[in-house]
Amino acid sequence: MEGKSGKRSFSGFIEELSGASFVASIASILVGLLVGYLVLLSTNPSNAAQAFKALLRSGIADRRSMGQVLYFATPVMMTGLSVSFGNKTGLFNIGASGQFIVGAYVAILVGVRLTAVPGQFRWVIALLMAMFAGGIWGALPGVLKSLRNVNEVISCIMMNYIGMYTVNFLITKTVFDPLKNQSLRVPTEANVPKMGMDLVFRVGNQTSSANGGIFIAVGVAVLAHIILERTKFGFELKACGFNKDAAKYAGINERKCIVASMAIAGAMSGLGGALLYLAGSGKGIDVIDVMAQEGFNGIPVALLALNNPIGAVFSSLFISYLNVGGFNMQLYNFAPQVIEIIISIIIYFSAFSLVLKTWIRNLVSKKNKSRVVE
């Protein structure tokens, strides 16, 4: 079975891109954009057309804008991968927000306080420690699920709040900037290297916040795809997700798979938090009672990608593209919250991707049967 899984991994992905999965996702996006345009018309009809053009064009207006798309895409790519990985194994990881902020705090703590280590090594340690912290935070709901069958959605939601309040408290005790009510900024030398992105994505003296984190995120996506599609471990994880009773009968350790899946998903979210706050954009963690939005943005990324790790790369770029375009909509007297409404509409319709996928496959199947009969 492993050999078959290995052979089908790449070809299966191509089949998804060219088949019902791809069409379903594109249909969801188009319908969502259409409804979003109707929302613009209903609120400010005179500027709706220009604002919608800005939404669609701003992300590719210049090289700096394209760099910003990559910058915003990096953290949500990681949380999208986190949600996708859990869904692939039959678990709904809605705790990405808590895992994200815990990983972000640990990365900042290492970047700011571990001054004995040179900067070129400190960011690597910060990323690894963030993954470890996020993995622990994700593993806890997995342990409760495996030992006591506690629903992971409930425990993950609780862990989100615990993570948010714990991080707020720890920031005030360790890396607090009272003037800005935020965490301290990581020193420049401890940030993730730009890897030439600042030279490519710039306009004159204005540089984007793009950095080498995007390469790390894409690499993790490829690694997740390989794990799930080409390894025995990945087969066991998916088997437990498809049918845990059948997997248990086949000799697969269900409890181990649940904990491992949630730990890996948590590590991905934790890494996403580290990549955002070690990007060198001067961003700090605000000490407020609001959960990290990047964690919840991972859900539409996973939905649009239909839980495919490689697809999550493209869907995160799309969500980021809309965010960049949404900033320029304010030039046409639209509130910044409008882009959130449009993205929410797309998320709503993306939830029907699986329904559309099934309908498209049934339609294609009927056509093929009719051809055979003829």
Characterise this structure.
The chain is mainly alpha-helical and about 375 residues long. It has a single domain, classed as ABC transporter involved in vitamin B12 uptake, BtuC. The protein is about 75% helix and about 0% strand. It has helices spanning about 1-20, 20-45, 50-55, 65-90, 95-115, 120-150, 150-175, 195-200, 215-230, 230-240, 245-250, 255-275, 295-305, 310-330, 335-350, 355-374; strands at about 175, 180-185, 200-205, 205. The strands form two sheets. The protein has a two-stranded antiparallel sheet. Strands 3-4 form a two-stranded antiparallel ribbon. Helix 1 (about 1-20) crosses helix 9 (about 215-230), helix 2 packs antiparallel against helix 15 (about 335-350) and helix 5 packs across helix 12 (about 255-275). The protein is globular, with a radius of gyration of 21 Å. The model is unreliable at about 1-10 and about 15-20 (pLDDT under 50).
What does this entry show, briefly?
74% of the residues lie in helices and 2% in strands. The protein has 16 helices and four strands. The chain starts with a helix and ends with a helix.
